[in-house]
Amino acid sequence: MGTCATPRYTTKISNLKNSIHIVDSNRVMTYAKTITSKELKKHLYTFSSDAFEGRKVGEKGQKLAADFIRSYYKKENIKSPPGISNYYQTIPESFFSNKINASENVLAFIEGAEKPEEVIVISAHLDHLGITEDGKINNGADDDGSGTVALMEMAQAFKQAKKDGYGPKRSILFLHLTAEEIGKRGSAYYTQHPVFPLENTVTNLNIDMIGRVDDLHQDNKDYIYLIGSDRISKELHYISEKVNNTYFNINLDYRYNAIDDKNHYYSRSDHYNFARQNIPVIFYFNGEHDDYHEVTDTPDKIDYDLLERRAKLIFATAWQLANQKHRVVNDENNDLLK
Ligand SMILES: [Zn+2]
């Protein structure tokens, strides 16, 4: 009988899974419950209203949308991050091409109590397609109003926890990105001009469309697609699974995470700019539907109970990442996988 110098892969994975301990399990749902379909709906009806003219990057409607988000954080007393003037990271016109006007990412920040320098980034894009040539407004309720209002509600939940003395150990940045629809330029700008060093950016949880149900799930609506969760840190993947198994049991559908998936969703939203910097990411997505990038993507078609459940899942995942003992480890540095 020989000795086995390196454990088998399956053993390594089970060791990794066993190393994950859910934190604050009695507390997470207390604050997750403050994320309600009612408030999500209220915010989304405003954010995707005609008043914001389809939120085209650099145009009046997008500026109004950015101001709406900023006003919310001010009212909730959730701060602008240090080094950022009044919640806006301005992207100059010179960064864009095709005569796009200057635009802005909107940032809100909850500082960690124990490891403030380590940051969890939760992102969604605030811009959309604007007005069609024949004058119809692209409301973009799902894309990405759903992600935008989910961030607002999550930030409120973390803020309430902090007020009660249960603030996160690590910091959380709520990053509302502009210019996603013209090629992920807002996240490109952020990752080239990061407000917190990228090496201290623990994870990016990116949300782009979580309020609808696609054709494949009409009979089992309690699902969400996760993309990218196992690419850089398997620990992140198993944390995400364990959080879901502990609190929600939503069907996490990984079909679009296949390396050879022809849709290439992994490279199609803002998380990709973080992944390119070797930062572990999860992309949350409900899949495409008939109203995707059409003027019919309106707030009356959102399933608000589902939006609430999905936002709670992402909130609980962020809570775990912000509060567990060690920061999530990339696979190349993970001793349990060696
Ligand atoms: Zn989108």
Automatic annotation (TrEMBL):
- In this chain the Peptidase M28 domain maps to 105-316
Q: Which CDD domains match?
A: M28_like_PA
Q: Which Gene3D superfamilies match?
A: Zn peptidases
- What InterPro entries does the record point to? EF_Hand_1_Ca_BS, M28_fam, Peptidase_M28
Q: PANTHER family recorded for this chain?
A: METALLOPEPTIDASE M28 FAMILY MEMBER, PEPTIDASE M28 DOMAIN-CONTAINING PROTEIN
The protein's name is: M28 family metallopeptidase
Organism of this sequence: Snuella lapsa
- Upper taxonomic lineage: Bacteria, Pseudomonadati, Bacteroidota, Flavobacteriia, Flavobacteriales
